[in-house]
């Protein structure tokens, strides 16, 4: 559970450190790009903490699944469009 939590913890922090990258991959049909990126980062952090607490694990897991589904359009958009910067991961890999 710790590994999964760390995955989402790092992902949440990266949303705040590399906000511009995540804004760039947002589909054009969605508004409030920066706000949605920051909100998704907050929910990743909350989910990362929540899955470590036995009483909140199930609800946090459901929330993280919903978050993954919600951000999927940005992942598809990033894969399909050829915009500058899409081929570069914000962490350099």
Automatic annotation (TrEMBL):
Protein name per UniProt: DoxX family protein
InterPro entries assigned: DoxX
One family name in Pfam for this protein: DoxX_2
Keywords, alphabetical: Membrane, Transmembrane, Transmembrane helix
Keyword Isomerase attributed: no
PANTHER family in alphabetical order: DOXX FAMILY MEMBRANE PROTEIN (PTHR36974:SF1), MEMBRANE PROTEIN-RELATED (PTHR36974)
Transmembrane segments: 6-24, 36-52, 58-81
């Amino acid at each position: 559970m710790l590994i999964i939590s760390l995955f989402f913890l790092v992902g949440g922090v990266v949303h705040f450190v590399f906000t511009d990258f995540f804004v760039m991959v947002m589909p054009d049909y969605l508004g409030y790009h920066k706000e949605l990126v920051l909100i998704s980062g907050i929910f990743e952090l909350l989910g990362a903490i929540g899955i470590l607490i036995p009483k909140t694990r199930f609800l946090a897991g459901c929330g993280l699944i919903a978050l993954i589904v919600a951000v999927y359009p940005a992942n598809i958009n990033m894969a399909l469009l050829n915009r500058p910067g899409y081929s570069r991961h914000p962490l350099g890999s």
